[in-house]
Specification:
Elements: E1 4-8, H1 13-24, E2 28-33, H2 36-46, E3 51-55, H3 61-75, E4 80-83, H4 98-126, E5 129-134, H5 147-167, E6 172-179, H6 185-190, H7 196-199, H8 210-221, E7 232-235
Parallel strand pairs: 1-2, 1-4, 2-3, 4-5, 5-6, 6-7
This protein binds NADP nicotinamide-adenine-dinucleotide phosphate (NAP).
The site of NADP nicotinamide-adenine-dinucleotide phosphate (NAP) has 30 residues, from helix 1, helix 4 and helix 6.
Length: 242
């Protein structure tokens, strides 16, 4: 039986590419993000594939639960969850306000926490599963002018490592993919439309394609990685090798 795979942040960038990579491998998909139009367009692209989209704001706990419920109702189980939904914010610490802090942490940290809570409950019922959370190079080191985002991604890595320990005996693996600069709308926003500014720092001399990150996610989520849990896998063209 094909795997049931849930992806948050599926409407764009890495989440979208991940949904398409899983579809190629015959997965049954449950996709969520806030933007309904992009979600519906993705379903159209997936054609006859067994895929569902539901409007989901991960900052709302009931939404994350409802997405898992959809997987259980329509496909009867949940095998894999990829938590890709996130927001970025640029600015100096002095200039950031409480609203920005709350908005970013609500989506990137609290949203991931509540999403995982619902996902774990469903996976336990099915006898196990695999969760892949999206961090960033900023999840383990500093990045200029992005303090709130960097702090949120450090939290993602801590949350994921702790969860990997708590869930290891329950046959639920939790891992992290930490992309370097990847050609998505987020990178475009962060670089004011000039991704080459970030790509220049990558030893391989280019930004990654979302599909390159997606294939690492698919591997970590798969049974090929059956003894891998609690790791952070950088997918960044050598950026953190030095
Ligand atoms: N691109 C990069 O260079 C890069 C580098 C390092 C890490 N990352 C990480 O990779 C992941 C994917 O980023 P990306 O580059 O693909 O960004 P993206 O193109 O901006 O996509 C982000 C996705 O998250 C969704 N999203 C945002 N807030 C949400 C919320 N509250 N609830 C539900 N969905 C929400 C967005 O859809 P809606 O707006 O429709 O909700 C969108 O589908 C993120 O975790 C990001 O931090 C990206």
């Amino acid at each position: 039986m094909s795997k049931v795979v849930l992806v948050t942040g599926a409407s764009s960038g890495i989440g979208r590419a991940t949904a398409l990579e899983f579809a190629k491998r015959g997965a049954r998909l449950v996709l969520g993000s806030r933007g309904e139009e992009a979600g519906t367009a993705l379903l159209k692209e997936l054609g006859d594939m067994p895929a569902l989209f539901q409007r989901t704001d991960v900052a709302i706990e009931a939404d994350t639960r409802a997405l898992v419920d959809l997987a259980l109702e329509r496909f009867g189980r949940l095998d894999v969850a990829v938590n890709s939904a996130a927001l970025e914010a640029r600015g100096s610490i002095e200039a950031f306000d409480e609203a920005t802090y709350t908005r970013v942490f609500d989506a990137n940290v609290e949203g991931m926490f509540f999403a995982m809570k619902a996902q774990i409950a469903a996976m336990r019922r099915g006898g196990g599963g695999s969760i892949v959370n999206l961090s960033s190079t900023g999840g383990s080191r500093g990045m200029p002018n992005m303090a709130i985002y960097v702090a949120s991604k450090h939290a993602v890595e801590g949350l994921s490592r702790a969860a990997a320990l708590d869930l290891a005996a329950s046959n639920i693996r939790v891992n992290v993919v930490a992309p370097g600069p990847t050609l998505t709308p987020m990178l475009s926003r962060v670089t004011d439309g000039h991704p080459e500014a970030f790509a220049r720092r990558v030893p391989m001399g280019r930004a990654g394609a979302p599909e390159e990150v997606a294939r690492a996610i698919v591997w970590l989520a798969s049974d090929e990685a059956s003894f891998v849990s609690g790791v952070v896998l950088p997918v960044n063209g050598g950026l953190t090798a030095a």
